[in-house]
Design brief:
This protein is of the alpha/beta class. The protein has a single domain (about 1-155), classed as Rossmann fold (3-Layer(aba) Sandwich), CATH 3.40.50.360. About 45% of the residues lie in helices and about 20% in strands. It is built from six helices and seven strands, in the order E-H-E-H-E-E-H-E-H-E-E-H-H. The protein has helices spanning about 10-25, 40-45, 65-75, 95-110, 125-130, 140-155; strands spanning about 1-5, 30-35, 50-55, 60, 85-90, 110-115, 120. The model has no long low-confidence stretch (mean pLDDT about 95). This is NAD(P)H-dependent oxidoreductase.
Length: about 160
């Protein structure tokens, strides 16, 4: 099972996670779309791979996504090593801060990155655009669908 673990504040990361789930469904492997505030260590143990989807806030991942990693970090040490993962990040103008933060955390779990980071830039850089509900272009959502399908197909074929 592919666990798509997500958090969103303004809708962009939620839309990205939903698009990835559509792609995963096309790839053939089972998947679960799990909000970061309810995902548990047991959910992670049950997963054969992961897609972490969240926004970048102030150069790092959202607090709820960080809380997921904090809550699950110690219970998962030594239990999910070698499993594949990828990331999708909704960012205003950068995304690399969140990307680096997730990569450092999952290094402790010994996960393997199997796809390049998917960073979708919304251009939000002022209070009005940061707070606004996000609508992503079809091309950005297609990138997320493709990533979900890649992960699902790779898991289904045993490539990861």
């Amino acid at each position: 099972m592919l666990a798509i673990i997500w958090h969103s504040r303004t809708g962009a990361a939620r839309a990205m996670a939903a698009a990835a789930a559509e792609g995963a469904a096309q790839g053939g492997a089972a998947f679960a779309l799990l909000s970061a505030d309810v995902a548990t260590p047991d959910d992670c143990v049950a997963a054969q791979g992961f897609l972490f989807v969240c926004p970048e806030n102030l150069g790092s991942m959202s607090g709820e996504m960080k809380a997921f990693f904090d809550r699950c970090y110690y219970p998962l040490l030594g239990r999910i090593e070698g499993r594949p993962y990828a990331t999708a990040i909704a960012a205003g103008t950068a995304g690399q801060g969140t990307q680096g933060q997730i990569d450092r955390i999952v290094t402790g779990w010994r996960l393997r990155r199997v796809a390049p980071p998917c960073i979708v830039l919304t251009g939000a850089d002022r209070p009005d655009s940061i707070l606004a509900t996000k609508s992503l272009p079809h091309t950005a959502l297609q990138k997320c669908r493709d990533l979900g399908q890649l992960l699902s197909t790779g898991m289904e074929m045993g490539a990861f």
